[in-house]
């Protein structure tokens, strides 16, 4: 197994962004693959309401990767996964909360491997991302995207 690669975000810059005007969408999902496209649909509708269509493709891919990781690797029997979409003054923050203590890593996938590139995509698309503790068991994995233009 390859050594994990840490996220490129500055570790001193992990303070959560604060929602602008309290705008946040918090949803809970079952720990199944079917939750991923449903969550993407909710994110698209949220971005349409907020005027953030410019980042829809990148945000959808980031959400897919983070939520898929939580479904595959953060499974805890009897618990759900929570997503949060927060509209901040800087842009969009996507959070995925799960009850597992297992930390994600950006290990380089073996040659020919079909998976293992999700966090590399998140790292390439997000302005910054990271992993934080959360209230209760588990962790939250977050990513932030700047959003320009009106009416953001």
Would you mind describing this structure in some detail?
With 152 residues, this protein is α+β, with helices and mostly antiparallel strands. Helix content is 28%, strand content 27%. The chain is built from 3 helices and 5 strands. It has helices at 35-50, 56-73, 118-125; strands at 19-29, 81-88, 91-98, 128-133, 139-146. A 5-stranded antiparallel β-sheet has the order 1-2-3-5-4, with helices on one face. A hairpin with a 2-residue loop joins β2 (81-88) and β3 (91-98). α1 runs antiparallel to α2 (56-73) and α2 (56-73) packs antiparallel against α3 (118-125). The longest helix has 18 residues, at 56-73. It is globular and about 40 Å long. The termini are far apart. The model is unreliable at 1-16 (pLDDT under 50).
Task: Report a brief summary of the structure.
With 152 residues, the protein is α+β, with helices and mostly antiparallel strands.
Give keywords.
5 strands, alpha+beta, 152 residues, 28% helix, five-stranded antiparallel β-sheet
């Amino acid at each position: 197994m390859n050594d994990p690669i840490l996220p490129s975000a500055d570790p001193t810059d992990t303070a959560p962004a604060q929602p602008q005007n309290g705008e946040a969408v918090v949803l809970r999902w079952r720990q199944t693959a079917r939750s991923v496209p449903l969550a993407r649909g909710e994110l698209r509708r949220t971005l349409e309401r907020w005027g953030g269509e410019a980042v829809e493709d990148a945000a959808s891919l980031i959400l897919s990767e983070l939520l898929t990781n939580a479904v595959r690797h953060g499974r805890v029997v009897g618990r759900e996964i929570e997503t949060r979409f927060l509209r901040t003054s800087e842009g969009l923050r996507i959070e995925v909360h799960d009850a597992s203590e297992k930390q994600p890593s950006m290990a380089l996938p073996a040659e020919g491997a079909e998976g293992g590139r999700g966090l590399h995509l998140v790292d390439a698309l997000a302005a910054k991302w990271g992993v934080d503790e959360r209230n209760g068991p588990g962790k939250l994995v977050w990513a932030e995207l700047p959003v320009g233009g009106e009416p953001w």
